[in-house]
Amino acid sequence: MRKNSIKNTRINMEVQRELSEIIRLGIKDPRIHPMTTVIDVQVTPDLKFCKAFISILGDEEAGKATIEGLKSAEGYIRRELARRVNLRNTPEIKFILDQSIEYGVNMSKLIDEVTKDIRD
Q1: Phi-psi bin for 59: left (phi > 0), alpha (psi -120 to 50), beta?
Q2: Bridge partners for 43 per DSSP
Q3: Which residue of 51, 69, 82, 120 has the smallest Cβ count within 10 Å?
Q4: Using CA atoms, how far apart are residues 21 and 101, in angstroms rounded to an integer?
Q5: What are phi and psi of 41, to 5 degrees?
């Protein structure tokens, strides 16, 4: 199976949808920020490993605490994922903090400041 095959794309989308629902409704850890979003999921073609890119609307401390909370709940998340998604292997999940949205917001603010200075 190629990395960008239709089957792999569908698996990525299904795992992303289920992961976001598990994190939103299933985990009661107070370290996990309520505004946590699963941005992207990349499952390897052999279905052994999975990278889940997580975005948090908050400060850097909240992001680190959320990743710690997700890592501690990895067993529960993996078990729930196996129950909800019918795959031959349930992938081992690695949570990665994705700060691209925050970076985009900061760049947008900088661009607005520069254009405001030019207009004035």
Answers
A1: beta
A2: 50
A3: 120
A4: 20
A5: -135, 135
Query: 């909370």: which residue's tokens?
Result: 69
Rounded to two decimals, the pTM is 0.80
Closest CA to 18 of 66, 72, 87: 87
How many other CB atoms are found less than 10 A from the CB of residue 78?
A: 16
Place of tokens 């309520």: 34
Render each residue's pLDDT in the chain as its tens digit; 120 residues: 456 788 899 999 999 999 999 999 989 889 998 889 999 999 999 999 999 999 988 788 888 999 999 999 999 999 999 999 988 889 999 999 988 877 888 889 999 988 887 876
Question: In Å, how far are 14, 17, 45, 66, 75 from 85, measured between CA atoms?
Answer: 8, 10, 16, 24, 15
Tell me the CA distances in angstroms from 41 to 23, 24, 28, 32, one per residue in order: 14, 16, 22, 19
What is d(CA 17, CA 41) in angstroms, rounded to the nearest whole number?
9
